[in-house]
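Quarterly update from the structural biology core.
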Amino acid sequence: MGMFIMLRSSTTLRYKPFSFTFQFSYTSEHYSDATNAILTPTSVEGIIPSYKVADISLSYTWKMLTAEASCNNLFNAQYFTRRAEGYPGLGTIPSDGRGFYFTLMLKL
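Predicted structure, tokenized:
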């Protein structure tokens, strides 16, 4: 295994009352602990595979009202970021799947 890469990027485009944001994250394959163990019988130590995650959000503002919709994990990537020693058991903790959110904000 070579160099560890972690990339976080985002861009926001605005046009009058509209706003669009795209975020992208990439993390290369890396070890879960300082021993650089590839795999152990308990699955607590080992390699964490590379993963990519994208998020988007859209917003519209009108006077004192802002509506925002967003989607986290846009492409429903399946990955894990750490290994568990206890609850819910030995092994990996999976990522959250795709999530949608809507927010309505009133500024007084």
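DSSP finds no helices and nine strands in the chain.
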